[in-house]
Amino acid sequence: MIIPAYNAAEYIEKAINSVLEQTYPAAEIFVIDDGSSDNTAEVVSKYPPPVYLLRQENGGPASARNHGARHATGDWLAFLDADDTWLPEKLEKQIPLTEDPQVVLVHCCSKPIDSPITFETLWQCNQIINSTVLVRRLSFENVGGFNEDRTLIGVEDYNLWLRLLSLGSFTQIPYLLINYTPSHNSLSSQTERFVKAEIRNIEIISQILPISKNQILKKHVDVLMTYGKIFVNMRDQKKARILFKSALDMQISATLIAWWLITFIPTHFLDIRRHIRTIKA
């Protein structure tokens, strides 16, 4: 299993220990120090096998995961982000599902997904948390692993899932078997980076997979609208307006026009409206 780590000294022990405490033991645990400036490597190096420290210059999470995958020897690859942890029975619950030869990815989620994941449903939104997955090694290698384009940071896992789904099926455990730390994307600059990564992912996937123009258009508009709403909630009206205008340039709809008009409302009026709604609740 593979843990990319960048300046993770504060919490990497919790991640490693959660793997060591599995009821179904992991044969090897590769922690990839991705050019950290703190003492991540020192913390990891204190662990004996099956924990192994790999080091590289900073290349981003996709590069670090690929580095670990090249050293792994098992038929299945598991990934864990350094600030997440596994519940003790995570592997034990998932391993039986790997016996189906059609399955290329096993994951778990907080609520059951009513029907099997198809490209259409996955294209609508990423429903898979990276730290929950087991990926068939051969399939991972066949699609070239994670795309290391740094403009994809934040959605590099989503990019891989979309490519993997063309090789087989995904299956799930219908409850969460990890303690997950959500992305810290509350800052406007970080949210803006996620928008660019999502758009870049659309461009890349549409070049390598047979996706209709309507699917590409709808995905573009959905991404712009989703992040436009996030910027409105963050009271960054200017950036929200830019995204809604970009979406309107692609597709006219009453909903988009309404959201675009909202960005011209002074933020203190929006705050008053929110306050009134809170009082009524």
UniProtKB/TrEMBL annotation:
Transmembrane segments: 250-270
Gene3D superfamilies: Spore Coat Polysaccharide Biosynthesis Protein SpsA, Chain A
Keywords assigned: Membrane, Transferase, Transmembrane, Transmembrane helix
Pfam family, one: Glycos_transf_2
Record-linked SUPFAM superfamilies: Nucleotide-diphospho-sugar transferases
GO molecular function per UniProt: transferase activity
Cell wall biogenesis/degradation found in the keyword field: no
Domain Glycosyltransferase 2-like span(s) in chain numbering: 2-111
Keyword 4Fe-4S set for record: no
Matching InterPro entries: Glyco_trans_2-like, Glycosyltransf_2, Nucleotide-diphossugar_trans
Protein's UniProt name: Glycosyltransferase involved in cell wall biosynthesis
Organism per entry: Armatimonas rosea
Highest classification ranks of the organism: Bacteria, Bacillati, Armatimonadota, Armatimonadia, Armatimonadales
